[in-house]
Amino acid sequence: MNRILAMAGKEFLHILRDRRSLAVALLMPLTMVLLYGAVIDMELRDLRVGVLDLDGGDRSRELLRAMTSSGFIVEAERLDGREAIEAGFRQGRLQAALVVPRGYGEDLARGGARVQVLVDGADASTAATVANYLQAVVALVNRDLLREAGLAAPFDVRTRVWFNPELVSARFVVPGLVALVLMMICALLTSIAITREKEAGTLEQILTTPVTPAQVIVGKVLPYVALGALDCAMVLLAGKWVFGVPMAGSWWLLAAYCLLFIVIALSLGLLISARSPSLRVAMMAALMVTMLPTMILSGFVFPIASMPGPLQVVCRLLPATHFLVVLRGIMLKGQAWFPVQTAALVVMAAVLLTLAIRSFRLRLE
Amino acid sequence: MSGEAAVFARGLTRRFGDFTAVESLDLEVAGGEIFGFLGANGAGKTTAIRMLCGLLPPSGGEARVAGCRVGRDTGALKRRIGYMSQRFSLYEDLTVLENLEFFGGVYGLGRAELAARADELLPRLGLDAERGRLTGSLPLGYKQRLSLGCALAHRPRVLFLDEPTGGVDPVARRGFWDLIYEQAADGVTVFVTTHYMDEAEYCGRVSIMVQGRVVALDTPSGLKARTGGVDMQDVFLRLVDA
Questions:
Q1: Distance from CA of A200 to the nearest CA of B (A)
Q2: What ipTM was assigned to the predicted interfaces of this complex?
Q3: Is A156 inside any structural domain?
């Protein structure tokens, strides 16, 4: 016990002495919550849409009014020809354009009118949203027109969003940040801490003492568990206070899953440090293995369902993917039963921990 | 003598694949002796020391250090030895006292014991005034003495010093050897490697290793008589080139 405490105490001193890294470890998670919470907004506002009204009748004016009154479009620029659309796209003045063809009014009276929506596809995700949005507006106008004609629409879709009714992105993003922060602190920092000691020769010095490899690992890792837990709490509280991210389920359950995920992250960190010949390699490996997949493939920002099949399989193999399902379930829905995810996480933790300890021992003994 | 030898090796061998780094090493070092373990770079000194410290399992032969069988009683062995490497292996972002307390701590010393040991060691090492200084800001000679202190924190019976004076000025080297003599006078066995042949003269006995084998083992004066060398430098060159 003395030995583990000596290891842990020394590691705490390393963390405290390295002010800059400490500042990064504490401020980066907070900054990420504030940035991601505010920036990753799935909604589009301030759309700049061009309008080419070749009809110019009352009916077309109604359509345009319906479109601009929604509040999402700041600026509906009137265009005077098709060339203006392309010019607008090229100059980046417009993101989309609506073309009302000549004869729209008469076609509407007969039934079978058409309008054209043109979207600048250079920014694919914005383009998709804009197209969806404009189609929704057109559908709305359609419904009103039918009602006016005394006809009921054959069917009417009413969407209600549960658990996050306003689709606030922070509610979606904050659980993902918890995973990201735990990976960063527990995997990245531990692998750096161990590799640095290997490079400095101090690890070999420690090995000439009667400390066992298990004591080295536990003592070295404990301070990072504490730091990870602290960061985790900061992210959750910032999410709650600044963005009103709810906590529908049990804090204890959340803590338990966080701990499970910490074990996984630490094992990854150990594995990386055991396999890396140098600090530089360890850092790159940790970034590649932990941060990138967690950001891109875990469903943190990009939905897994829209990824190609083989990539989805990769996603399922990532601990963060399952951890995120659990976190969002607990926080947003108050869910308490995750058989598939729990099994996946427990198996991953067991496998990674075994591998990590084995390769670390091999390295040390 | 073999019963109470502080360091004893018989046929100790270490192979890495086809390469034999240490071939059938025979040694007996008495308690309180200062034993010089010389050899050119790559002669196998470090491999031999790593085996004797329990860091590397031998491929053959047997060895006992401080009464513990190498490769068997590794835990007890590690408690009874101190090891100081040529890299001084200290934590630069920790203070002098913190380094000493850490290494004492991993040897299992408690708080009170650590404090008492630090009060005793730091003045002896001439580091009492520096106890609160960050190790990274110390001159090399100070780091060297601190590194020795860390290896001594738990009062080892056998002290392994792997090129402990590399890069240090002659005055600091002389001071360091005074510390080594003090330890030997207290009954600590000192097993030291060095490239400085003037230092070899300070040892009770020296062995010279060439390509994994010990080619000579005697007192410095005995070796000079046998080879006809005028000093240890001369002896070393004659034996290594032979």
A1: 7
A2: 0.86
A3: no
